[in-house]
Design goal:
The complex is a heterodimer of chains A (324) and B (330). Chain A is of the alpha/beta class. Chain A has helices spanning 7-21, 43-47, 59-71, 89-97, 99-102, 132-136, 149-161, 211-224, 242-252, 267-278, 301-307, 311-322, and strands spanning 3-6, 25-29, 52-54, 75-81, 112-117, 142-144, 166-171, 178-181, 195-198, 203-207, 229-233, 236-238, 255-262, 288-292. Chain A has a seven-stranded mixed β-sheet with strand order 3-2-4-5-7-6-12, sandwiched between helices. A five-stranded mixed β-sheet of chain A has the order 9-11-10-13-14, sandwiched between helices. The longest helix of chain A has 15 residues, at 7-21. Chain A is globular and about 65 Å long. Chain B has 330 residues and is α/β, with parallel strands linked by helices. Chain B has a single domain (6-310), classed as Thiamin diphosphate (ThDP)-binding fold, Pyr/PP domains (Rossmann fold, 3-Layer(aba) Sandwich). In chain B, 40% of the residues lie in helices and 9% in strands. Chain B is built from ten helices and seven strands. Chain B has helices at 6-31, 46-53, 70-74, 79-86, 120-134, 152-163, 211-226, 259-266, 270-280, 286-309; strands at residues 61-63, 140-145, 168-174, 177-178, 181-182, 203-207, 232-237. In chain B, strands 1-2-3-7-6 form a five-stranded parallel β-sheet, sandwiched between helices. In chain B, strand 4 and strand 5 form a beta hairpin. The chains are: A alpha/beta (324), B alpha/beta (330). At the A-B interface, helix 3, helix 4 and helix 5 of A face helix 5 and helix 6 of B.
């Protein structure tokens, strides 16, 4: 049955449905019993202290404990912020990412890290990380970047049932976004299948996470000028649905990539690389990246807003691809 | 001692000899160039792993570190598969993908060794968390060194385990040196076991050259864990006879320790200590001890032959074992 939910409610529904479904699912993180960030509301009352664990401020410790619990049959969900993942990088990289391969396939790690990206709100350099490209560079993580309540719920449910380490990068700028969500198995969203929220024929815009609504606004504006934009939301970066992107570029011949993460060695770079190698003869213009400037996030709003993609920047980039 | 069965004592001696011969052969074949890479000999420390693992069941979990050939063998792992892994062959524990620092046998609770110092400590803590959440009575034990005891991962895990009363045994193998740095120069307390007080758990200092003492201390810690009474920190005082790692030729032993110190520790060799106990108590004769050593040396020789004859992985195996639920590689 479909209903309407905001992004954080959709995450909450996903957790509850999967905790109802499977007793091996539990969740831990900082201040989750009181749901400081909204996604864990009501969990303590419903599932009790044994399955809803407030942790000390020890990310390396409890990120690693989640790995150990997953190795012996549990399905842990860890709630965190992207910026706190740095503190736990040894457990994420040396253990979660590498264990299965390093042990010749013996280890199975059904662990989910939910990492909220707070950016664009004056949080400054230490709390504004959009770090998914760094994890894309490390084999061993499935990387999810939901841009709608439907995908926030559906991808998280799929991640909880998946048997590999998954990181869900939840976009804080979309926390209040509203949309339709399904219930139960109908809500599941598969990995590696891009969404095409808008079809078009002149230019392809691949947009990631919080850049998706910007791309849709840009497409509406460009439509007034008679430019038809196709918007693709990859939804998962590992695995990446490259065929949907390549097929779209084959149709439009033009590609703009909008990505809130830093532009160097980014998801946008990877997509540009794939299209330049595998879709080169379809291109009629250079690929344009609209990604975050390669500086740290300044506190003051007048500077911060210059860093990220915007619908204006996307419109400008689309126009560049249409120049003769 | 009176509560330790004869079978248990004999098995401990067998496993200590197995590890000793394994490590001696590894040093020989490594220097002969039969395989490459780092390997960290456990010689001199055998009583720690063997005594501690003797207190565990197959359903209990262990995790190790970079100096971890001894831990899986102490828990009953396959000497052939361990040796084949060092040789990088398909019959190795990790099909040649892990090597010396990443032996693992999930079928008997060996959750794997880690090349990053202290990195296994949170993992083992998590296995114990699973026991608590599931209401199971298995325990988890992690081996780490004096060097690792200074890592944040260790301290974070001890706090978590004590806070949540988790059935984990933190087994610190204090072999005196982190590469060349004495623990006296890197640890702020007299004994690493003293740090247990900071986390409100028992801290036990044990003679790590005495397998029976290790077994008895660990057995108590395991019982506490199974009873829901939380974690224990055990510090085993032991000694690394060999250099930090094979292939580290630049490090000269005289630069950071004396021959006299090495000789002094060798006088209390852990195998001698256990054999002395067994022979003076009439449990085994000298000849029976020698026969055990010979049998284990033969077993290691067979393992070397097995490893040499095992094939290397095929090139396409490069891409296997990335995912439990496979996705296309980019």
């Amino acid at each position: 049955m479909a209903s309407t939910a905001i992004y954080v409610e959709a995450i909450n529904q996903a957790i509850m449905e999967e905790m109802d479904r499977d007793q091996s699912v539990f969740i831990m993180g900082e201040d989750i019993r009181r749901s400081v960030y909204g996604a864990t509301a009501g969990l303590l009352d419903k599932y009790g202290e044994n399955r809803v664990l407030d942790t000390p401020l020890s990310e390396n410790g409890f990120f690693g404990a989640a790995i150990g619990a997953s190795l012996v049959g549990m399905r842990p969900i860890v709630e965190t912020l992207t910026s706190f993942m740095w503190v736990a990088m040894d457990q994420l990289v040396s253990q979660a990412a590498k264990m299965r391969y390093m042990f010749g396939g013996q280890a199975t790690l059904p662990v989910v890290y939910r990492a909220t990206m707070f950016y664009g709100g004056g949080s400054a350099a230490h709390h504004s990380d959009r770090s998914y490209p760094m994890f894309m560079n490390m084999p061993g993580f499935k990387i999810l970047v939901p841009a709608t309540p439907r995908d926030a719920k559906g991808l998280l449910k799929t991640a909880i049932r998946d048997n590999d380490p998954c990181i869900v990068f939840e976009d804080g700028t979309l926390g209040g976004a509203t949309g339709e969500v399904q219930e139960g198995d109908a809500a599941l969203v598969p990995f590696g299948v891009a969404d095409v929220p808008r079809s078009g024929s002149d230019v392809t815009v691949v947009a990631i996470a919080g850049a998706v609504p910007m791309a849709l606004r840009a497409a509406e504006e460009l439509e007034e000028d008679g430019v038809s934009v196709e918007v693709i939301d990859p939804r998962t970066l590992v695995p990446l649905d490259k065929s949907t992107i390549l097929e779209s570029v084959a149709k439009t011949g033009r590609l703009v990539i909008a990505d809130p993460a830093h532009k160097v060695c980014s998801a946008a770079s990877e997509i540009a690389s794939i299209v330049s190698q595998e879709g080169f003869w379809d291109l009629q213009a250079p690929i344009m990246k609209v990604a975050a400037e390669q500086v740290h996030i300044p506190y003051t709003p007048v500077l911060e807003r210059l860093v990220y993609p915007s619908s204006e920047k996307i419109v400008d980039a689309v126009r560049v691809t249409l120049e003769d | 001692m009176e509560n330790v069965s004869k079978e248990k004592l004999v098995q401990m001696l067998e496993r200590m000899w197995l590890i000793r011969h394994f490590e001696v052969r590894v040093m020989e074949v490594h220097s002969a160039g039969e395989f490459t890479g780092a390997a960290h000999p456990y010689i001199g420390e055998e009583a720690v792993a063997v005594g501690a693992c003797a207190a565990l069941e197959d359903t209990d979990y262990i995790a190790g570190n970079h100096r971890s050939h001894g831990h899986p063998l102490a828990k009953g792992g396959s000497v052939k598969r361990a040796m084949a892994e060092l040789y990088g062959r398909v019959d190795g524990y990790c099909k040649g993908k892990g090597g010396s620092m990443h032996l693992a046998d999930f079928s008997i609770g060996i959750l794997g060794e880690s090349g990053i110092v202290a990195s296994s400590v949170p993992v083992a803590t998590g296995a114990a968390l699973a026991a608590k959440i599931q209401g199971e009575d298995f325990v988890s034990m992690v081996f780490f060194g004096d060097g690792a005891s200074n890592q944040g991962a260790c301290h974070e895990s001890m706090n978590l385990a004590a806070l949540w009363s988790l059935p984990v045994i933190f087994l610190c193998e204090n072999n005196q040196f982190a590469v060349t740095t004495s623990y006296h120069d890197s640890v702020s307390v007299e004994h690493i076991s003293d740090r247990a007080a900071a986390y409100n758990m028992p801290g036990i200092l044990v003679d790590g050259q005495d397998a029976v003492a290790m077994y008895e201390a660990t057995r108590e810690a395991v019982a506490r864990g199974r009873a829901g009474e939380g974690p224990t920190l055990i510090e085993a005082l032991t000694y690394r006879y060999e250099e930090h790692s094979l292939g580290l030729g630049r490090v000269r032993r005289g630069e950071y320790r004396t021959q006299g110190q090495i000789d002094e520790w060798r006088e209390r060799d852990p195998i001698d200590v256990l054999e002395h106990t067994l022979t003076t108590q009439g449990i085994l004769t000298r000849e029976e001890c020698d026969a055990i050593s010979k049998a284990k040396a033969d077993e290691v020789d067979e393992a070397v032959e097995f490893a040499r004859n095992s094939p290397y992985p095929e090139p396409e195996e490069l891409y296997d074992d990335m995912w439990a639920d496979p996705i296309p590689l980019p």
